[in-house]
């Protein structure tokens, strides 16, 4: 079985695959492959270990009829057309849980960074604008006892809610398609409809899986229903928000601030107007970027491939229906 890894991953995963004698090819160039180059190499392999946001759509599956499995180096699987994989009985593996702490840490970091204007204040020093102490300048807001609203309270959302409750005694409300009974029991999280999530959250943090039907759900209409002191945090996928509408909301006192680890599109251009705002903190999609999380992700991805190699079910599979 031949495995193609389109960008290098931590050694922990490579070693596991090598120990099993699995034939792997890691993209030898530092460059991102063009779509044609990527497809050509996938055609020559049985399994793809995919790092980054390649679009694994129906066209991809049609062009790569030999593929027997996909191991994603991510928990999110929005870039894969799952019905196309299912049609061909191709299992798709992901890396759940191991990155929940790291990603929720970034959501928490952004929340505080926005509340205390920290990125902007740092830029002020760099730009020679640190002047004498002024009682009315650089004022942020405290989060104690405020309401955290989570859109998509699953693994990462739970970790975020737990931290916010422990650190600031925040009240938790959330909106999912179904109830998260564990969060209701452990964190006293209250299920609300989407409109209530918008109108009652002091901090609204997005942690849902992305799918087309939620494209730019956080747009002008949604921001208009939020509190004027609200902080919007998105560490899930950039396509959840409309960036022009977010800019409008941030510059017209519709909402108070925003923290983004994901942008729409990615990568963000360096002259994006959001980068110049005092009330917006942006990071370049580093949610899972810790040694601990990335090593563990590499192990999960390798375990998924090893299972395929041994004719077993992938231990972390997003389309278990292919095994029925
Ligand atoms: N910034 C980064 O580096 C990272 C980003 N991510 C992103 O975070 C996402 C979440 O990961 P994780 O917590 O592990 O996933 P989970 O599946 O554990 O949680 C996702 C939650 O979203 C809810 N949800 C899904 N669809 C909808 C919807 N249409 N409306 C409302 N709620 C919805 C689900 O509940 P229900 O089914 O009941 O609706 C579920 O509780 C990933 O898919 C990925 O996009 C992940 C890791 C790193
Ligand atoms: O896992 C994911 O979905 C990411 O976005 C990166 O870790």
From TrEMBL:
Keyword Repeat: no
Keywords (A to Z) from UniProt: NAD, Oxidoreductase
All residue ranges annotated as the D-isomer specific 2-hydroxyacid dehydrogenase NAD-binding domain in the record: 110-287
Domain of life: Bacteria
Pfam families noted in UniProt: 2-Hacid_dh, 2-Hacid_dh_C
PROSITE patterns in UniProt: D_2_HYDROXYACID_DH_1
Keyword Transmembrane set for record: no
CDD domains: GDH
Domain D-isomer specific 2-hydroxyacid dehydrogenase catalytic, first and last residues per copy: 4-319
Family: Belongs to the D-isomer specific 2-hydroxyacid dehydrogenase family.
Name recorded for this polypeptide: D-glycerate dehydrogenase
Organism of this sequence: Flavobacterium piscisymbiosum
């Amino acid at each position: 079985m031949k495995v193609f890894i389109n960008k290098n991953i931590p050694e922990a995963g490579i070693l596991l695959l090598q120990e099993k004698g699995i034939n792997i090819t890691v993209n030898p160039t530092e460059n991102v492959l063009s779509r044609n180059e990527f497809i050509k190499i996938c055609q020559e392999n049985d399994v793809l270990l995919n790092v980054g946001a390649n679009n694994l759509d129906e066209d991809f599956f049609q062009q790569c009829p030999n593929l027997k499995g996909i191991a994603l180096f991510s928990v999110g699987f929005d870039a894969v057309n799952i019905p196309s994989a299912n049609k061909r009985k191709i299992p798709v593996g992901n890396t759940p849980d191991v990155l929940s702490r790291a990603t929720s840490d970034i959501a928490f970091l952004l929340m505080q960074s926005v509340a205390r204007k920290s990125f902007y204040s740092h830029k002020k020093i760099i730009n020679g604008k640190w002047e004498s102490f002024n009682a009315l300048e650089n004022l942020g807001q405290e989060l104690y006892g405020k309401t955290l609203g989570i859109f998509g309270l699953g693994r990462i959302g739970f970790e975020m809610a737990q931290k916010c409750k422990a650190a600031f005694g925040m009240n938790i409300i959330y909106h999912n398609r179904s109830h998260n009974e564990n969060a209701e029991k452990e964190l006293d999280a209250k299920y609300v409809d989407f409109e209530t999530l918008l109108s009652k959250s002091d901090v609204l943090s997005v942690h849902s899986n992305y799918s087309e039907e939620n494209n730019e759900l956080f747009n002008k209409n949604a921001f208009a229903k939020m509190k004027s002191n609200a902080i919007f945090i998105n560490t899930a996928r950039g396509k959840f928000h409309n960036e022009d509408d977010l800019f409008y909301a941030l510059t017209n006192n519709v909402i108070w601030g925003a923290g983004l680890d994901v942008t729409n599109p990615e990568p963000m251009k360096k002259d994006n107007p959001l980068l110049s705002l005092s009330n917006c903190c942006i990071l370049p999609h580093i949610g899972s970027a810790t040694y601990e999380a990335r090593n563990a992700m590499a192990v999960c991805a390798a375990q998924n491939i090893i299972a395929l190699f041994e004719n077993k079910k992938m231990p972390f599979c997003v389309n278990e229906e292919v095994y029925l």
